[in-house]
Write a structure and sequence with these properties.
Length: 462
């Protein structure tokens, strides 16, 4: 057993009878609890002094990785730097202490901020109306599909139950459609990674409710046939849904509404710089053409995750009209630079122009037996978070890289140098890479066993 405090569980630091708190004397009458809701014995909680607890969790917090630590190239998630002015605005006591049930007359300032954010998001996306109520991206997807379903049903068109989804789409797209009670129909991609328009044509009929797309797509490739795709779907009576996960490269370049999309959800926690990960926090506003506004469903009685919205508001105002136009082009430049610097040692399955992200298919030299998983684990030894791996499912050894616009040339060059070094290690000492990480708090874990037989509680008598 390693004696370092941060390598041990809090339960392992427990000492019988040791406490770090003192409760005041109970001033209330004694009440007996019913036996069916009472414990038969005290819970097995760790017994530690305050200093041990503080040191333990402080040291553990140092094992977390985020954009404040280093480059976070998590493809399709847009893990950009979160400016501290956003945090300063969102932590103002006048906003932090708001309660969702307090009278509307007491939150006029907050409502004005929300209304201003809606207008800005409409301008950025080309939509006619926006609701801030959805609390996450998936919540926004469901909301958007409910709008589409409500629109068709209001016209008595109940047979439109199919949603077309490209095979390169995010997994949330078919999941959201299924949750909404709609049927998912997959549309194939061509060798260049874009939607196969001919395959799409075979699936268009009067049962299609919508087509869900993100543009650029999950491979980071702009769908150059987007206007034709929109025309085809609209001609058959369907609507176009824009998944906002990849909106970042479009900022300052073009708008989904101008492409012909009817409904869109945004990820404020991605494109508009709120720290996220580990399940939250998130915010998934939904926009639509003005004539669809009446179909906004009541998915949330409140304003959504207000402090996330505040961060987006601060981010947009900090950039202003001039600099928000540079977000997309800079994100595209950074990704293109990394791709150009590495494509001789990492296999690039789809050549040509990509936008904010791109996908490698593992190392070019497959003879070493070093996999994408091995590369990702070895990156941890050098202090980098791994990119998204084994997604999209179009390639066997996918490695999706998205640096965002936040990173400097020096930061990106450091990341490139490490990936090149790992490619060289795979040739000269493949076992070193295959057994990584070597410098992390724990070594290679059995991912399958952890998923099939998770240990979620500490044994009472270890």
């Amino acid at each position: 057993m390693n004696n370092k405090l941060y390598d041990r569980l809090i339960f392992e630091l427990s000492s019988p009878g040791r406490v770090g708190y003192h409760l005041p004397k109970n001033q209330f009458p004694h009440h007996e609890l019913r036996k069916d809701v009472s414990r038969t014995k005290a819970p097995a909680l760790p017994e530690c002094d305050e200093m041990t607890v503080v040191r333990h969790y402080t040291n553990h917090s140092g094992n977390n990785f985020g954009v404040d630590n280093g480059l976070y190239p998590l493809g399709s998630c847009t893990m950009k730097y979160n400016p501290k002015i956003n945090e300063e605005a969102a932590n103002h006591p006048a906003f932090v202490n708001l309660h969702p049930l307090q009278p509307a007359s007491t939150v006029a300032g907050a409502q004005a901020l929300a209304d201003e954010l809606k207008k800005m998001l409409c301008e950025i996306t080309g939509m006619g109306a926006v609701t801030l109520k959805p609390c996450a991206g998936a919540h926004g997807e469901l909301t958007g599909l409910m709008i589409i379903r409500g629109y068709h049903e209001s016209r008595g068109d109940f047979k439109r139950t199919k949603v077309l989804v490209p095979d390169s789409a995010h997994g949330t797209n078919p999941a959201s459609a299924a949750v909404c009670g709609l049927d998912v129909v997959e549309v194939k991609s061509k060798e260049d990674g874009t939607v196969d328009v001919d395959d799409l044509a075979t699936k268009l009929d009067d049962t299609v409710a919508a087509m869900m797309m993100t543009n650029p797509n999950t491979l980071g490739i702009f769908e150059h046939n987007i206007t034709k795709i929109v025309e085809m779907v609209h001609k058959c009576g369907g609507l176009m849904y824009y998944d906002g996960a990849n909106l970042n490269p479009l900022l300052g370049v073009c708008r989904p509404g101008d492409m012909g999309f009817d409904v869109i959800h945004l990820n404020l926690h991605k494109t508009f710089s709120t720290p996220h990960g580990g399940g939250g926090p998130g915010s998934g506003p939904v926009g639509c053409r003005k004539e669809l506004e009446s179909f906004f469903p009541t998915v949330n009685p409140y304003q959504g995750n207000f402090l996330v919205e505040m961060r987006a508001w601060a981010y947009i105002l900090s950039l202003g009209y001039e600099y928000i136009k540079k977000v997309g082009p800079t994100a595209t430049l950074n990704a293109s630079y990394i791709k150009a610097k590495l494509q001789d040692v990492y296999e690039l399955p789809i050549k040509g122009l990509s936008k904010h992200e791109f996908v490698f298919n593992g190392l070019t030299d497959k003879s070493t037996g070093v996999t994408t998983m091995d590369v990702a684990k070895r990156l941890l030894d050098y202090g980098y978070h791994a990119p998204t791996i084994y997604f999209p499912l179009l390639f066997h050894e996918s490695m999706m890289i998205e640096p965002t616009e936040s990173e400097s040339l020096e930061s990106i060059d450091g990341f490139v140098a490490v990936l090149r070094k790992i490619a060289e290690e795979a040739k000269t000492d493949p076992e070193l890479v295959k057994t990584a990480p070597h410098n992390a708090p724990i070594s290679r874990v059995d991912d399958v066993l952890a998923a099939k037989n998770p240990v979620l509680t500490y044994p009472e008598n270890p």
